Structure formats: C-alpha cells, structure tokens
Amino acid sequence: MNKKLLVSIILLLLTSTFFVVSLFTSSNGVNFGDLQRVIDGDERVLLIFEQIRLPRALVAFFAGASLALSGALMQAVLKNPLASPFTLGISQASAFGASFAIIVLQSYSSVFIFSGSFITTICAFGASLICTFVILYLGKSTQMRAESLILAGVAIGALFSAMTMFLQYFATEVDVSATLFWTFGDLSKADIYTSVIIACVFVPSLLFFYQRFWKFDALLLGNESAINLGVSVVRLRVGAMIVASLLSAITVSFLGIIGFIGLIAPHIIRLILGSGHKMLLPLSAILGGGLLLLADIISRVIIIPLVVPVGILTAFLGAPLFLYLLTRKKN
Amino acid sequence: MLFEVKNLNTSINKKQILSNIDFTLNSGEICIAIGPNGAGKSTLLKSIAKIIPTTGYITLDNSNLHELSIIELSQTVSLMTQFNSNTNLSVQEVLNLGRRPYSGFTLTKDDFDIITNIIDEFHLKEFLKRDIDTLSGGERQKVFLAAALIRNPKVLLLDEPISHLDPKNQQEILEIVKRVTIQRDIITIIVLHDLQNALHYGDKLLLLKNGKLQKHLGIDELKDDHLEELYDIKCKIFKNEGHPFVLLGHHHSSISNQYHNH
Predict the structure, then answer these.
(1) Residues β-bridged to residue B26
(2) Contact A149/A143 with Cβ under 8 angstroms?
(3) Is the pLDDT of residue B117 over 80?
(4) How many whole angstroms separate alpha carbon A70 and alpha carbon A251?
C-alpha cells in the first residue's frame, strides 16, 4: 500500500481512538462502563458527556490541530525547523494580556458584567494580535526576511515577559497565583463554544492553505525559485504568519500555554513522509489533535484523582520526544 | 523569437548593480554570460526573471515580459538557481512543482503527460521517490533542469548549472541544454565561470564587468584582449580542429606555444 495512505489511515485511526477514550476518561480513570449507562439512558451520565467530556475532547482535538497547523505554517514560511506558534512571542504576549486583565482590570472580581475568564481571554487574544502586527510591521522594513522575523519575535517575546513580570511585581499574591495558573495550559477551561470558535478558525485556515500547499513546497527551494514559480513570497509569508498567529492566539487565549505540540507534530510527519506540504499540513493537524487528546487522557489518569494541567504534560512528553527525534535525524 | 533587453538597470539597496544593459538574442541560441565575481551575472538573470526590481525593457517578440503577471511570467521564463539544500522534497514533488504555475492544486492529464515525457527523456524514473537532498550533484542538477523545462519556458535561465560537477556531468548537463535549446527553439542564457565550456557550448557571449556589459558578441568574434580586459589576466584563445580553446595566465603561454609547435 502507498506509504502516504497507510500513514494517513493509521493517524486517523489513532486519533479517533484517543477521541473515544477521552470521552470515557474522568479524573477517576478510563471507564468504558459509562457506555452501558449512556445506552440505558442515564441522564446524569448523558449530561456529563454532553456538557463536559464531549466539549473537552473536541477542544483537545481542535486546539492540538490548530497548534500543529500553526507550527507547520510557521516552519514553512520562516524556513526554520525550530519555529513554532510561540517563536514570535505569541505565548508571552498572551500571558501578558491575561496578566493585565487579572491584575489591572481585576477581571476575576465581580466588577464586570461578562465573566472574568471572558475578559481575560479577550485581553490575551488582543495582546497576541498586537504582538503579531508589531512583528509584521518591523518585518516590513526587512522585506519579511525569515531571520529578521524570528529575531524580532524573540525580542518582542522578551519584552512581553518583562512587562508581565513588572505587573506581577506590583500585584497581590492572589493575583500573581491567578496569572500563573492561567498560563498552565488547561482543557478544563473549555466548553462547547470554545471548541466551535477554535474549529471556525482552524477549518477554513486548513482548507485555504491546503489549496496552496505547493507554494510552501516552492518556498523550500528558496525564495528566488519560489518567485520564479509564480509565488508571491511576501504575500504568502504575511498571510501564513497572520493565520498561524491567529490559530495559536485563539488557542492560547482560551486554554493557556500548551507547548511542544506545534513544534513536534510537523517534525514527526516530516520525518516519516518528507517535507511535501500536501501531506504535511493536514497530517500535522490530525497528529497535533491526536497528541493533545492523548496528553489530556494521560493528564486525567496519571495522578488519580488529580487532573494535571495538560500544558505541563505536553512539555513533559514533548521535550524528550523532540530530543529523540533530533538525535535520530542526526544519525 | 527575438529576445531583447533594452536599457536594463538594477539596484539593490540603492546600490547600482547593473547599468544600461542592452542586447538581443534569437531563439535556438545559447548565450553565455561570463565575467569576474561580482560582475552582475546572476543579477542579470534575476532581473530578467523579475525576481529583483528592475527598470528598462525586456521583450520577447516585442511584448514586454515585465508587464506579465507573476504566473504568466513563470510560464514564460524559467530560472534554475544554485541548489538550496535541506529541501526534503522527493524528486517527483520537485518535478510536479513545474506544472503548478499552470494548474495549481490539481494537475491535469496533460500536465502528467508532460512530466512523464521529461522523466523518460532525462532517465529519472529510478529517482522519483528519492529525496532530492540525497542525490549526487549531477543527478540533482539534471532533476532541476528537468523541472525548469517541465514549465515549457520560452526563455531558460541557468545560474552556474555545472559548478561543483565533475567534467563528465558538466558535459552531460550542457549537452542536454544545447539539445533542448535547439529542439524547443528557446532562448537560453547561462552564467558560467568555466571559459572552456562557455566557448564550446555558447553561440553568443555576454561579457560583464562591474555591472556593465562590456561586449556582446558571437563566439567566433571573441579575441584574447576581450578576455584579458575582462579578467585582468593574460589569456590566449586558439583553435584546434575547429574548436576554440582558452589558456589563462602567464605560465600558460609556454604550454600554448608547445601545443602549437606540435
């Protein structure tokens, strides 16, 4: 069988399995006995499925897929294997936005009509968009050269970190712990609307860039070859960066910082199937979704009855896996 | 087809790289751009392919190439640049890219026919699934040349296509270029440092120095002092059985005399 088809089928099967297992996982571990209760029409269990587990599984899939697609796009246009949704300082900017909402706007007190988490999300999202546009503005003067964008991202990220620390220095202990807790990527913040919003950004983004996959392939041959193949390199780079930033900003704003998925999913696909973006873009997304589902399952069963924030798990799993891939690639 | 470059000027970061370049070429001709490093040879190719902003006129049968859209231009002018490593693409993917300016996402049956013909013509079948980075220098250049020709260009631009290749592979690549230029009746401009190959495979020469076109002439019109002025070293051109040869530098003159004495 064709290797690409085989890998696609295996990935889809694995991800679907993780999705189903996730539906039957609670802080008490995996319990497939719930299936019988659903069939029997146990309303309490049905409600848990409908209100908690299904949204959580959907959010895990779409958030993982968004982060992975974002990573694949960033790595393609910045031509840097270390690029991820956070290379451009987006996570630091989101963390600053959230800290600003919590510490300055006191979003978790009862001053606001909207719920506190909503204000925090809006501020986190706003800050990451500001970060993206500042980098694009700075990049304009250097013809959007990949190295300049990455360096600008590192500098802006450091600036946002400093601003967050500045706020935290003057904040109360309660607010500081609230900001710290926010930064742990955590799927328990998710509801069905979160999954719908993330999916509404992810699906059109994937379809749009999938149609143009060959332009990313052309970019691999170098800027000049890409232009000569009819690709508007600057437009592609700006477009992909805006969408990649949007994808990660949405995810981070709702769920907090979930590292490594965006970095590692495209790398695994590239290692198995090469760099052709026809397979890389969709399969990275599916793998990203699957990995976050898996991490979320583990986060609920690893210290029963505690639920470890999934952001901690992805870093724990992602870092050694990344190092393994790195050494394997060298060999 | 008549290819004309008129009053071409190119600046990069406000620095003038090419000034007032004028020349004319006919289809079926190979024109070789020679000159010292930094003369503007590669910039000339990139200017023609509109990769860097340029003023002046570049026309093919009186239609201005730079008025074409980026996609139309990519269907007309094919530039093969120096290899960019770490692409991690398969040979098939690189070849398919050549038809994307025509068909985008979905390649048609005609596209696949063109690709298959080139694969046969260049004997690439055994490499199709290989990662392009794992090919030898000669094989890789053949694939990139094939990919450039898959676009059915009217103007083929090759930037140092034989650098880092052994003599056998150099010959193979340039023989292919010569053949397709005549068969397809296209205009080919090649940047070369190897003067021997330039004299052997070229029909016309562009002698570039300091961003200026010093001479545009046929191979037969090339004289020793043209090359001496271009490179600031002693040069000697001589013919053996109708083929021009060139010897460079002081210490070669004695060898040249010996050769003539034989």
Answers:
(1) B2
(2) no
(3) yes
(4) 10
Contact B79 A212 (CB under 8 A): no
Q: Could B51 and A224 be called an inter-chain contact, meaning their C-beta atoms sit closer than 8 Å? A: yes
| CA pair distance B159, B174, nearest whole angstrom | 12
pLDDT tens digit sequence for A231-262: 999 899 889 988 988 888 888 888 888 888 99
- Statement: the pTM of the whole predicted model exceeds 0.90: no
- Alpha-helix residue ranges (DSSP H) falling in chain A: 3-23, 34-39, 43-48, 54-78, 90-99, 116-140, 146-169, 173-183, 192-211, 213-220, 223-228, 233-255, 261-273, 277-301, 310-330
Partner residue facing B71 (CB), from A214, A217, A230: A230
Partner-chain contact B46 A224, CB within 8 Å: yes
Q: Quick one: how far is CA A17 from the chain centroid?
A: 21
CA distance B198 to chain A (A): 24
Amino acid type, B55: T
Comparing C-alpha atoms, which of A101, A9, A11, A111 is closest to residue A64?
A11
CB contact (8 A) between residue A225 and residue B81: yes
Does the domain at residues B2-86+153-231 carry the CATH identifier 3.40.47.10? no
Residue B46 and residue B158 in contact, taking contact as beta carbons nearer than 8 Å: no
pLDDT for res A213: 95
Tell me which residue has tokens 């870093």: A315
Judged by DSSP in three states, A173 sits in helix
| Residue count of chain B | 262
**Tokens 């063109």 — which residue?**
B114
**How close is the nearest chain A Cα to the Cα of B38, in Å?**
18
CA distance B121 to chain A (A): 22
The dihedral built from the CA positions of residue B63, B65, B69 and B74, taken in this order, carries a sign that is positive
For domain A3-330, which architecture applies?
Orthogonal Bundle (1.10)
Q: Hey, which residues does B188 pair with through a beta bridge?
A: B30, B156
Inspect the interface and report whether the beta carbons of B101 and A220 lie closer than 8 Å: no
Instruction: Report the complex ipTM.
Output: 0.89
Give domain limits for chain B: 2-86+153-231, 234-262
Are A75 and A136 spatial neighbours (Cβ–Cβ below 8 Å)?
no
- Which residue is it, tokens 């009862």? A110
Q: How far is CA B144 from the centre of its chain?
A: 12
Residues 41-100 of B with CB under 8 A from A: 46, 49-51, 70-71, 73-75, 77-79, 81, 84, 87-90, 93-94, 96-98, 100
- pLDDT number for residue B252: 45
- Please write the tens of the pLDDT for every residue from A224-233: 999 999 999 9
Considering only CA atoms, which of B175, B184, B148 is closest in space to residue B74? B148
Which of A220, A229, A274 is closest, CB to CB, to B100?
A: A229
For chain A, the structural domain boundaries read: 3-330
